[in-house]
Amino acid sequence: MTFCSLLFPNPEQRPSIEPRDTPVFWGDLHLDQIIDAITADKAEYDLQPFFRTPLHDLDTIQYRQEIMRDLAIPALFERIQAFAKQMRAMREHRAQADKLYYPRQKAAWFLDAAAIYCQGVTRLAADLAAGGFTARGLCDFRDYLTRYVQTDRFTAFCQETQQVLDELASVRYRLHIKGQRIAVHAFTADHDYSADVQETFAKFRQGAVKQYDVRFPDEADMNHVEAEVLEMVARLYPDVFSHLETYHATRQDYLDETVGAFDREIQFYLAVREYVTRFEREGLPFCYPQVSPSKDIYADETFDAALAHKLLTTRAPVVRNDFSLTEPERILVVSGPNQGGKTTFARMFGQLHYLARLGCPVPGTRARLFLCDQVLTHFEKEETLENLRGKLQDDLIRIHQILSQATPRSIVIMNEIFTSTTLEDAIYLSKQVMAQISRLDLLSVWVTFIDELASFNEKTVSLVSTVVPEQPAVRTYRIVRRPADGLSYALSIAEKHHVTYAWLKERIR
Amino acid sequence: MKAYLMYPERDFDLGATLPPNASLLTQDLELATLWDAMADGDAFLREVARHAVLDGVSDLDTIRYRQHILADCLNNPSVVRELYALATAAIDGEKRNYWGLFSHYPSTILHRSIAVLKMFADMLTQLTQIAEHHAQQFESEGFTRFFAMVARELGTEYLARIHHHLRDLQFRDGLWMSASLGKGNKGTHYILHRPPTAKQPRWIKRLAAQHPPVYSYVVADRDETGAKALSELRDRGINRVANALAQSTDHILSFFTLLRTELAFYVGCLNLHETLGKKGEPLAFPHPAASEQRRLDFRGLYDVCLALRLDHRVVGNTVAADGKDLIFVTGANQGGKSTFLRSIGLAQLMMQCGMFVAAEAFSANVSEHLFTHYKREEDRAMNSGKLDEEVGRMSDIADQVTAHSLVLFNESFAATNEREGSEIARQIVSALLEKHIKVVFVTHLYELARGFHDKHLANALFLRAQRQADGGRTFTLHEGKPLNTSHGDDLYRQIFKTV
User: Across the interface, do B184 and A108 touch by the CB < 8 Å criterion?
Assistant: First the structure.
């Protein structure tokens, strides 16, 4: 079996053009925050397109999950990270070589880049040969690499690289600086004058010493005087420097294409693993979802990764929630107190389904998720200066677009729509939309203040955000299956804002 | 090269951590007065005195080592002061050249170091001259060794070698160095070689200079970047030698610093000796005994701090308390009890740092540690908070105290009623004695003192502040059993002018 990609077992699935645009629903679901957090330290690998390419087939999801699971093995993870670090160092060296002016310097930086490459690849081949993993993608790449490091092309290249390095390392010369004149002489051994000085005053030594040696700025490039000296040194050692020159001229394309692709693609996995580890360290679990074409779904102890990531930095507790839908249930209708975690719940639902389609682990202890073809969202936008009718119109236009794009395999997430119109309107419109969603057999989450929707038909499931019974003003951020009862939460909100009957009697004079 | 004037085999460390109870000792024994007298206005002398007194030694050899050196100092005060002035001048001279330290240019560091080294070489020469002229006037092991070391280590030949380096470091014949190629083929590992010496025949130098093949490059006169680059290259070459030289000046500086620090202690002693000598107060070298022994025998022991504050001479006490683990001091208020206790503490500290003591004669066993537990004057309220604080301080002492230490109690545990205070103190004192800790306890707690008196302990001594028949105080203490009154009525009458 030949190896083609760590991300796609079948090369035809790879998109011909890597997607660049951020989908609209990313913002609604805070997926942009999640993906930014995952790729934050990986800008050089340009990973965002990978996250903008959700998968459509279960085998590829499986292929990625296998690799992701194997990378949870700390030893393997560290070995691959070490390789990535060397490849990065190699690129930095080549970039430096390009920036420099003097050819003898360019050649030296190029040589170092090549040496790092040889070392990194050889090391990775040996590390992977040690095994300890089962993912198809990794095994195929290991086999490829094992063959590659044995090719003449690679071994001869490594040998020559080492030879040039050794030759340069053997160069030593004497300098005499007097006035404006610098002379370069062949090397003859002589001892270190500073040692003489040290020895003379050693008798005064009283313990710890301060360091007075100046750290010279470590700039890569040379000034013209250094370059002149280097030229003279090159004349002292003509063979060494002509070897370097030939090497530089003939060895430009040493980088293996497949190794280069691996270096980038493996970062998709490393990035996700590093992200997940941040949560796991704080006791927040991630799991590999079972992805299926069935609309019977569930997730236990799951959470909004974008919110949880923020909470991690403040060490605030993260509330976890469950959900499940069994035939014929399709629509989760979430009602309850404001700031009770309803929107968070809706986002979480969308995040889970999207991440699962990337082959990523998802928040929670276990999950079965639907292999959807798209996630469609409509979140209430902030109030604008437009008049209400204009806004309602926009809402309806948008909802219409969604419903016309939706297929029975789509997921639709509605968050507090129709808030800008009369209740009567809102109920009427909502029921209309709900009927359509129902008809399309869509999986859906609907956050609403309209209790009637919670018991719309056999497909709807009522979820309610909860309060602490003794202190109605305190939110638990738990969303539970329960019939919607507008009263208790309305009172608790009134209590919180001091607008109950008793409060208003007291406050209003 | 080490001065070794405080310890036979190690340096005196001004940075050493002082005992945790240093500030309590300072407060309770009024040590500031002692240090001020030793300092005579010199802050450095005061700091050294403070450390020496608080960081005393319990090793008899070291105490005697210092006593002998101090005796030499008392015999040759002007030479000792001259040595101290020399060390001080060397240190001040270095400080004036301080600017170079922060330089980022090895050439600046090198020039600064050469300047400092020239000055140091001069000071070292003076040091050898003092040694040459006065060494035979000194008898102590410490000074004999010191002067011998100066003569041996800083001979003419050695000083010539320093001057030789100082000349070579001008690099009149240019810089010779070797290098290899580092990252990006830039030169690295620059190693400076000693310039060919003037003694070498010209033809050898020429041969060395022309050893083939030779390539050369001359930076053009108007090439400013080139000139800068050239000087940087030169700086890279001399970087390590500049470092070595700067470190060498540091070494010599620290030699002078140590010398000055150790001499400072003796100069402080000289100052104190002169001040007390003018008042006609007696001073004596104490006879220390091992810490396991129980020795305390003195004649005319007085509170040196009180003596420093008063114009007239102060009353000394004479006590023979060899073999005693426990000394109780009871008796009249303002009868000299606190002064007496302080004089014991001060003499103990002064003895253990190698000084003379304020007495006609004094001998005592050294103590491993000295602790004071004094009633706090500022807070007279009798409340549990105060007792809590006092017992807390006792707990601190318990954390640190070891066998053969000395604990001085002054009116401790009086912050409650007499029975309870006595019981607390009784338990504490009994425990300390069993742990081989020597205790001197000044107290009004009659129950406490009488309780121990009634045990007829062979290792306990009871002293009483004397009260004359007319109610006047003599400020001296004599052996006597505790009495059931502290003569507060006297004091009351005196202060309130009642009859």
Answer: yes
Which residues of chain B make contact with A197, given a CB cutoff of 8 A?
165, 169, 241, 244-245, 248
Same domain, residue pair B66 and B93: yes
Residues B352 and B310 occupy one common structural domain:
yes
Record: contact A232-B215, CB cut-off 8 A: yes
Is pTM beyond 0.80? Reply is no
Q: State how beta strands B361-365 and B287-289 pair.
A: parallel
- Whether B175 sits inside 8 A of A176 (CB atoms) is yes
In DSSP notation, B386-419 reads HHHHHHHHHHHHHHH--TT-EEEEESTT-SS-HH
Beta carbons of A104 and B179 less than 8 Å apart: no
Pick the residue of B11, B152, B217 with the most A CBs within 10 A to test the interface with A by mutation: B217
% of chain B at pLDDT higher than 90: 59
Which superfamily, per CATH, for A284-507? Answer: P-loop containing nucleotide triphosphate hydrolases (3.40.50.300)
pLDDT digits (tens, 9 = 90+) for A172-230: 999 999 999 999 988 887 788 888 888 888 888 877 778 888 888 888 889 999 999 99
Q: Select from B279, B305, B336 the last residue of a domain.
A: B279
Structure ipTM: 0.72
Domain that holds residue B169: 1-16+55-279
Of B279, B308, B336, the residue that ends a domain is B279
Q: Give the whole-angstrom CA distance, residue A99 versus residue A81.
A: 27
Q: pLDDT at position B385, please?
A: 43
Q: Are residues B344 and B402 in the same domain?
A: yes
CATH code of residue B428:
3.40.50.300
Whether residues B296 and B162 share a domain: the answer is no
Nearest CA in chain B to A209: B247
Buried b (16+ CB within 10 A) or exposed e, B90-128: bbebbeeeeebeebebbbbbbbbbbbbbebbbebbeebb
Would you call A175 and B233 a contact, using CB atoms and an 8 Å cutoff?
yes
User: Which residue, among A15, A59, A45, has the nearest Cα to A269 in the 3D structure?
Assistant: A45
Residue with tokens 């402080």: B268
**Confidence band (pLDDT; 50, 70, 90) for A509?**
low
Choose the closest CB to B230 out of A112, A203, A225.
Answer: A225
Domain count, chain B: 2
In this prediction, residue B495 carries a pLDDT of 47
Which residues 86-105 of A have a C-beta within 8 angstroms of B?
96, 100, 104-105
Same domain, B309 and B453: yes
Residue B233 burial by CB count (10 A; 0-12/13-18/19+): exposed, middle or buried?
Answer: buried
